TrEMBL record:
Keywords: DNA-binding, Transcription, Transcription regulation. Pfam families: HTH_IclR (PF09339), IclR_C (PF01614). This is Transcriptional regulator. One of its GO terms (molecular function) is DNA-binding transcription factor activity. GO terms for biological process: negative regulation of DNA-templated transcription. Signal peptide: none annotated. The keyword Transcription applies. Residues 68-213 form the IclR-ED domain. Residues 6-67 form the HTH iclR-type domain. The keyword DNA-binding applies. InterPro entries: ArsR-like_HTH, GAF-like_dom_sf, HTH_MetabolicPath_Reg, Tscrpt_reg_IclR_C, Tscrpt_reg_IclR_N, WH-like_DNA-bd_sf, WH_DNA-bd_sf.
Amino acid sequence: MTAETSQTLDRGLRVLKLLADTDHGLTVTELSTKLGVNRTVVYRLLATLEQHALVRRDLGGRARVGLGVLRLGRQVHPLVREAALPALRSLAEDIGATAHLTLVDGSEALAVAVVEPTWTDYHVAYRAGFRHPLDRGAAGRAILAARQSPSADPGYTLTHGELEAGASGAAAPLVGVTGVEGSVGVVMLADAVPERVGARVVEAAREVAEALR
């Protein structure tokens, strides 16, 4: 800690990070141990965070991340979209297909940025705000593949006809971006995705990830 930083704010942020890293919540005692502070301090931190809906406590007294964090998270989408647009534009123009950035939103995949190519006679109409289950479509399947093998190179995922009849998709997950779970992909009217597209999508996902770090 330096003279310019707030110890209380630092502890509050550490509480949120600890809770975000667990699926079953943490008790006051567990938080006290992990933070290296007494239980009274933890009670005060949790009470303040609860007032802002950033933390909630279940009937058993375990603290969990609150819904207020989701509201803050929604404001991140415009920032992420802006950072991703250059790589998406390059991908769309290079491949001649609609490029998109998709993020996880609850149990669904949410397209937050879409760029259509300018030189093609036709392409798939794919709009920002489009939602679909994570287990359907290349964008969601790429995210699930990265979840299953977080330490491995997930490569890319190909699908055909899962979201729109006659359309094929290719997507690669964002890797190494703290707090952001998503993928970059393309969708095209074709029976199969050309071989070079997969590697190009992986490259674009890497470019977006670097822009977000």
